[in-house]
Amino acid sequence: MINLTPLASPPKNSRRARNGTPAFNKSFHTLLRAIIIVFAILATWQGLIVVFDLPSFILPTPLSVLDRLFVRHDVLMRHSWVTAQEIVLGLLLGLSMGLFFALQMLLFKPVKRWLLPILIASQAIPVFAIAPVLMLWLDYGIASKVVMAAIIIFFPVTTCCYDGLSNTPKGFLDLAHTMQASRWQQLIHIQLPAALPALASGIRVAVVIAPIGAVAGEWVGSSAGLGYLMLQANARMMIDDMFAALFILSLLSVVLYFATDFALKKAIPWEH
Amino acid sequence: MSNAPLGLSIQQASLHYHGADKATLDKLSMEIPPGEWTCLLGRSGSGKTSLLRYLAGLLDDKVDWHGEVKCSDGLPFQHRIAYMAQQDLLLPWLSVEDNVCLSYRFNKQGVSDEVRNKALSLLESVGLLDVRKALPQTLSGGMRQRVALARTLMQDKPFVLMDEPFSALDAVTRHKLQRLSYTLLKNKTVVLITHDPQEAVRLAGRLYILTNSPAQAESLALPKLFPPRELDPESAHVQQQIFHRLEQDND
Q: Which of A96, A98, A111, B45 is deepest in the core (most CB within 10 A)?
């Protein structure tokens, strides 16, 4: 038996930040940064109203919006739940479609030549232009908004996933080949895991833009959702209600992004 | 099947990349003795890596090959090699232990308890049992190459093809790893590509220099001591000869 001393030790405490600050301090700084950002936005907002003497039907004060958030919380929550479902289901559909088509393009090279123009066309046509058609085909319910959200994320997810799959380090594939791995085994054990960091980038983009698809769908035709609520509030000059809905939508997107980012970092620790 | 080491004979080998103007190897012949390290040296682009990659089955659809590759037991050479590259090629999403067991994910046997026990025993022999659950990116370059060595041993193939596996390491780590590899790969027939004459002289049981273009293999006499050799006047003299021969080929 050969007695070896380790040439280097792995980091003993991975929860410690690089400069030696404990993880708690890092989280505290992140929270502090978020509070400062929110405070700066609110101060700028209030400052604009004071400086330009803006009436409440043009720009309501942060306090009046906060008041609407409390008073109409039940209505806001009901509509937020609808929009949240549209976003999450749209993400699931778009991600599944993106992964499926990326795999098709990887496994069957001619599919790429046929599919690429369709992919590009799906991005060239604005979602607002196809929204009325989707309402016609899928009705005014949740399905048309789910499809809108899926369409808007389809391209970034497919391209990121395809890039990840087709750029697997050659050495990994060579090694698997010398171990007599079949094409299928190479895909499952090497290419798919190697593509996860690229797919994660696609997912991060997708969670940010999926709400755009869902809300755009609600604007074109719906009976529920934050987009619907904003449209109704705007028509009735209830600008503070509109801002309250807008605030919830922003919060939803931010929470979704950071929750996704956190989950991806946990699931793909080798990404960075 | 007998566990006796196997030799390999390459006769009149020519290798021509599809679309290339001229052949990379031409009428190359070499004998790779069983259970020893055969080191291949040559300037960059001389065809050493092409030869190794062909033997590893990585160029089948990219080159025209003529010549004979014969194992000493008369059985086919394919599927009886383990490959170790310059990069450790550890999969970043698998733990050290799972990386060592990688080849078993591709065969019907799968990663059984018996396989895991064997992997742990190999990790112990390379001094890395305590980091078996760690991900590769938490390890140093030397540790990663030791995991790659354990993965190669795990395959338990009679032939081990090594493409400059120590070149990216610092001098001390390289020296330690050469000794460790030599000890653990006892009874394996190893083909090592290297740019380092000192490494070649230290480890080689047979040494070839690839010269000319298209390349041919030229055998060089080695010191009388058995490998792994320490640096002594005789080894230094052979190293000087190698440098001289490589410089001649470069001119």
A: A98
CA–CA dist A112, A157 (Å, integer): 15
Question: Which range among A4-8, A130-134, A144-148, B6-10 shows the weakest confidence by mean pLDDT?
Answer: A4-8
Do the beta carbons of residue B209 and residue B242 sit within 8 Å? yes
Cβ contact (<8 Å) for B180 and A2? yes
A6 touches chain B (CB under 8 A): yes
Select the residue of B130, B155, B173 nearest A7 (Cβ to Cβ): B173
Mean pLDDT, chain A, rounded, equals 87
Residue A10 inside a domain? The answer is no
Bridging pattern class, strands B189-193 and B159-163: parallel
**Lowest-confidence range among A6-20, A151-165, A213-227?**
A6-20
- In whole angstroms, what is the distance from residue A63 CA to residue A61 CA? 5
pLDDT band (50, 70, 90) for residue A134 = confident
Q: Do B143 and A7 touch (CB under 8 A)?
A: yes
Q: State the pLDDT at residue B250.
A: 63
How many domains does the structure of chain A reveal?
A: 2
Whether residues A115 and A240 fall in one domain: yes
Compare CB distances from B138 to A2, A11, A171 and report the shortest one's residue.
A11
Domain locations in chain B?
Answer: 8-80+157-250, 91-156
pLDDT-based confidence at residue B251 (cuts at 50, 70, 90): low
Closest CA to B38 of B81, B59, B7: B7
Listed by number, the residues of chain A in 135-194 with a beta carbon closer than 8 Å to a beta carbon of chain B are 169, 171-172, 174-182, 185, 189-190, 193-194
Print the domain residue range for A110: 57-267
pLDDT at A89: 97
- Chain A hits for B173, CB-CB cut-off 8 Å, are 7
Nearest to B126 by CA among B102, B150, B99, B142: B150
Domain B8-80+157-250 has CATH 3.40.50.300: yes
Average pLDDT estimate for B64-83: 90
Q: Which amino acid is at A194?
A: A
In a domain, A112, yes or no: yes
Tell me if B83 and A172 make a contact (CB, 8 A cut-off).
no
- Give the number of beta-carbon pairs within 8 Å between A and B: 87
| A4·B124 Cβ contact <8 A | no
Residue A24 touches partner B, C-beta closer than 8 Å: no
Is residue B37 a contact partner of residue B192, using CB atoms and an 8 Å limit? yes
User: What count of residues does chain A have?
Assistant: 272
